[in-house]
Amino acid sequence: MTSRRAKTKKDIDHPILKKLPAEIRNEILRRAETRTVPAGSMVCRQGGPGDSFFMIRSGTVRIYRTTEEDIEMELAVLGPGGSFGEMALLTGSPRTANAVVIEDAELTSLSKEQFDKILKTYPAVSLTLIRQMATWLIDKDQIIERELRRQYVPPKLSILDFAVIIFLSSLCALIFNHSNPGGIKLLPDISLNSNIGRVSPSAAQMELEKNTAQFVDAMPSNFYDQEHIPGAINIPQSVFEIMYMMGLSDVDPSQKIIVYGRTISRLYDVRLANKLYSRGHKNIHILEGGLPLWKEKGYPVAP
Predict the structure, then answer these.
(1) What are phi and psi of 195, to 5 degrees?
(2) Rounded to an integer, what distance in angstroms lies between the CA atom of residue 127 and that of residue 225?
(3) pLDDT tens-digit profile of 13-25?
(4) Which of 242-246, 270-274, 276-280 has the lowest mean pLDDT?
(5) For 268, which of 2, 190, 261, 300 could close a Cys bridge (C-beta 3.0–4.6 Å)?
(6) What is 132-194 written as a DSSP string?
(7) What is the DSSP string of 219-273?
(8) CA 33, 36, 40, 42: dihedral to nearest 10 degrees?
(9) Prediction pTM value
(10) Closest to 191 (Cα-Cα) out of 281, 267, 285
(11) CB-hemisphere CA count at 13 Å for 190?
């Protein structure tokens, strides 16, 4: 499926490598392996072991997922300068997508084992690499989100159709609740750990002015970029492990943390607060009313 040929350090020139310090770049080049992969070759399979990261030097690679119904969902078509398999370096978790070569490609790969050795040898640049890969993952997450929006075109419903659906769904739920001793809730129940408190917007504003609490925005990054509480750090669920490592892993567990971020259907703040509590942070609080009530009170927000 693949053919190998030796490469010199100067022969491997990839945009990603240019962003790293020369010392770590040279170490990656020393450990990396470059191979020529013919068109039609499957580089990664969905569900397979996540043991390496790939940088595309030439050629084209298609990234796609296969649903349970065996429907292919295209995520991206990558060319020279592209990369895939970043999560493998961070977690070694199974592949979440397939990668197939559609035009003969030269790929430079770095295994998780090699990456771990680099971090042990150069601990000072670990954060630089992790931040770079967090950026790649967020970019890929946005690509997936755009592709999902493009592929899914919801059917057009009239206001009457929508009202009838809501009425019938509610009626069925109420009938089931009445006939079933266990009952069923119309909305999913996400319980907040009993040891996590709540804080009013006015009290939180005082904490902000005194700089005595760390504010954490639990919303997806595109919402955070639009508006957030000044000084708040963003830890979305999709990249929790990475962003936590960058923003809160070294914070004193006794430090007061105020979490906010929810929509009508998503309790991002509750989920994140529970996760932070499980990581040993015991002084966690949920902002009552979230960002909407905070803005209603006239407290500051940053773009």
Answers:
(1) -90, 0
(2) 22
(3) 566 666 677 777 7
(4) 242-246
(5) 261
(6) HHHHHHHHHHHHHHHHHHHH--PPP--HHHHHHHHHHHHHHHHHHHHH-SS---SS---PPPT
(7) S-HHHHHH-B-TTPEE--GGGHHHHHHHHTTTS-TTS-EEEE---SS--HHHHHH
(8) -10
(9) 0.45
(10) 267
(11) 13
Which of the four pLDDT bands, split at 50, 70 and 90, describes residue 140? low
CA 203 – CA 13 distance, rounded (Å): 53
Containing domain of residue 273, as a range?
197-296
DSSP class per residue in 40-55: T-EEE-TTS---EEEE
At 103, which CATH number?
2.60.120.10
Show which of 149, 181, 216 is a domain's final residue: 149
Q: Is 162 inside any structural domain?
A: no
Q: Which amino acid is at 4?
A: R
CATH number of the domain residue 232 falls in: 3.40.250.10
Based on the structure, what is the number of domains in the chain?
A: 2
Q: Give the residue, 237 or 43, on which the prediction is more confident.
A: 43
How far CA 278 is from CA of 98, 196, 283, in Å, comes to 33, 11, 12
